[in-house]
Amino acid sequence: MIGVVPKQEYPGFDSEVRKRGAAFLATCPKPTSKQFKKNNFWNKAVRELHEAYSGICAYTAMYLPEQGTVDHFLPKAGDNGHPHLAYEWQNFRLAGGRVNTSKGDSIDIVDPFEVQDDWFFMDVPACLLRPNPGLGKDLKRKIAGTINALRLNQDDNYVQERCNILIAYAQHDISLNFMERRYPFLAKEIVRQAVSQQRLRELFRI
Length: 206
Known about the structure:
Distance between the termini: 27 Å
Number of domains: 2
Strand order of the largest sheet: 1-2
Strand content: 5-15%
Oligomer: single chain
Largest sheet: 2 strands, antiparallel
């Protein structure tokens, strides 16, 4: 993960999402997940959310070629639900479908809007994420918990994609500038660790 700068809601969000959601909540103040599913007006904002955040998943910091999904950072239903935030732009995070499913209704995930760029490190060539060892114990525990909850290391698809991007960079198939736009966390780690393309080729044995 890498720090995400919150973007302003787009013109039309209020009428397309917020007001329609407010009308529903006026008749059903504490909806169940099933009731919310039938009134998922937030999906009308997916395309604009993808555009606002340049298609970068808030949790994997990887480009989503498809529109992705709307993650409610604070869950909308359940014991920890915040139904009044279900239709609020500031509670939306752009997320890939798999990572959104893994997150579920968890409230112990670090907020991409609050993440500092030195919180998450990555080991090369394993491409596994870990907390910065220089952080405080409680913060390191929360970061490690986030990595586990989102399956950022357990899901081989994420790990392999990170490795594939680094290999493409090592072979001069993509530039660092491209990585900064599409895979900002990986670009940040390449710069932080001062890993050259030659060194990556040695590490990946290519």
